[in-house]
């Protein structure tokens, strides 16, 4: 795939947010301590001491905030300037993305059904001097009944690693109601949601094909994998009542696809103004083989679907403009470099200049083929 020239090049805005990064060890230590002592119960003591537990604390204390400042914030702000805007965030966790976006927004209203992260979020806001955020202890889609008390409409709705944890009904209602609350020309932002159309489940079970399987089959196949992550997740899910297990699996995270968006929001109401191939998102989530295969199928089947939905991790921005905006121009190749093409390059190395080798490799990276003879 070739990049859109309007979004290619070095990330100029990333440097502009460098001052938002948190490097003060005392602030990081305080956020870590708050999370470690308020999120976990006494039963989690051994986990907290383990390398996995320490990694979890690091992620929620500062890694996710750093990701938001380095990748998500500049990506969104470049396409949809945030300064002075009213932002509604669904699912705040420990307040990492809320803190990042609140540094630019005029106000940010967020929520979460899991209250355990609220103490960390509030301590983060206090330490960073953020006073324009509200948190409500409720999940989506119920949060929208609360949100209208803050404002009749919002300029931006943020769904950062949220949709994959909802049931289908919850997801459709969340998307539909979020869209209704957007002001004209407002933006719906989806970041870091796994794509169910890709072979490998890189979010929850870390196993191939499981994102494509119905929940009841995943639950029945629980003993067929020896993967540590799979076994740990399934152990937690199977500990609950049988009737609650499909929802429990969903809460751990299940991929979505363009079908969910089509059900919730008619295509003629929006433009996909950012599709996840911009440099910020490619740096956040580098291209992988799964999505190259999916891109090739999109092209071969000539699907009338945005290339945004061929990424293994979905990151896209929908602008509420009646479909009159300009979407990024992408070219997907139906080809993936074959063994014969690679052998041809190998055999030709002695007769090719450095520039010619670089061009062929660029074709491989961008188009999925070493040849220039590909079909749009």
Structural write-up:
With 376 residues, the protein is an alpha/beta fold. It folds into two domains: 256 residues, Rossmann fold, CATH 3.40.50.150; 44 residues, no CATH class. It is 42% helix and 13% strand. It is built from 15 helices and nine strands. The strands form two sheets. It has a seven-stranded mixed beta sheet with strand order 3-2-1-4-5-9-8. It has a two-stranded antiparallel sheet with strand order 6-7. β4, α7 and β5 form a beta-alpha-beta unit.
List the helices and strands and how they pair.
Elements: H1 25-38, H2 45-49, H3 51-79, E1 86-89, H4 96-102, E2 107-111, H5 118-127, E3 133-136, H6 143-147, E4 154-160, H7 168-181, E5 182-194, E6 200-201, E7 207-208, H8 215-220, H9 228-238, H10 245-252, H11 258-264, E8 271-274, H12 279-284, H13 289-301, E9 313-319, H14 339-348, H15 354-367
Considering the protein shown, what is the CATH homologous superfamily of the largest domain? Vaccinia Virus protein VP39
- CATH class descriptor name of the largest domain: Alpha Beta
Question: If strands are numbered along the chain, what order do they take across the biggest sheet?
Answer: 3-2-1-4-5-9-8
Compute the number of strand runs: 9
How would the global form be characterised?
globular
Q: Tell me the structural class.
A: alpha/beta
CATH architect. name of the largest domain: 3-Layer(aba) Sandwich
Give the termini distance in whole angstroms.
Answer: 10 Å
Number of helices: 15
Task: Outline the biggest β-sheet.
Answer: 7 strands, mixed
Order of helices and strands: HHHEHEHEHEHEEEHHHHEHHEHH
| Uncertain stretches | 2-14
Count of separate structural domains: 2
Overall average pLDDT: 89
Query: How much helix is in the residues?
Result: 40-55%
